[in-house]
Fold this protein.
Amino acid sequence: MQLHTSDNPAKELGQAISTAINEHDGDVVCLLSGGSALDVVEHINITRSPGRLPENRPVLADDISAAGASLQAVDQTSESNSNKPECRTIFMMGDERGSREPEINNTLQLLARHPNHPVSHMLLETIPEENESLEDFAARIEKTFLQKISQLQNPKIFMILGMGPDGHTAGIFPLPEEVFQEIYRPDSTYVPVHVEGLTIDSRASLTPSWILDHVDQVLGFIVGESKAEMLESLVTESKKLHERPAELLKLHKDAHIYTDLYIDSK
């Protein structure tokens, strides 16, 4: 786990992701995070052709206009980089809130903040359908996601992970070990998460085991003084995954944390 500290970690992380995507000779999946990590999206600059985009929702007239402008700019840049492969780039939230409310659902928040950004037009949307249960929603997203990535060529998967003051990351929360194992089953990819006491207690998330087994690079985005104590603990002390899910950042084979917090790692 490498720590990258700066006054503008969102920009640094966005630039790092951009470079990794543009240089990879193959398809890319970039799993995003909500909350403060949405600040990273504006700094993601894709200069290669996006290839075929995700098709998981009805396309509206405004979408066509906005996407056309964004993709025209991308294509023009790509023409000057003809040696770059035409590869697919897919974005998706690594965890989601089981709500259709625009101010709650992570996907809808991203679309509202960055409606004309190329990321928004390469997005596998994770929005529950009307009257869809959280269990059905999670099963539908898991099926769609696995189908999409099974079609990719030489894929590389990146994932942004935030961290809460309690040590949770994505939709993975500290819980008693038996409960943790029951919710985040090792043989599952994307699961419903009901945890009492949360502001939004109905969520869905990729599982720790899937992240550790399939994500090529994990990128932590941890900012704000409220995270300082937990980040210092993460850097200097080890805990079990069910006690502190952000331990994923230490367990993963290739993890980087971008932060504005200056932590003594000694």
User: Anything to note?
Assistant: Residues 57-82 have pLDDT under 50 and may be disordered. The first helix runs from residue 9 to 23.
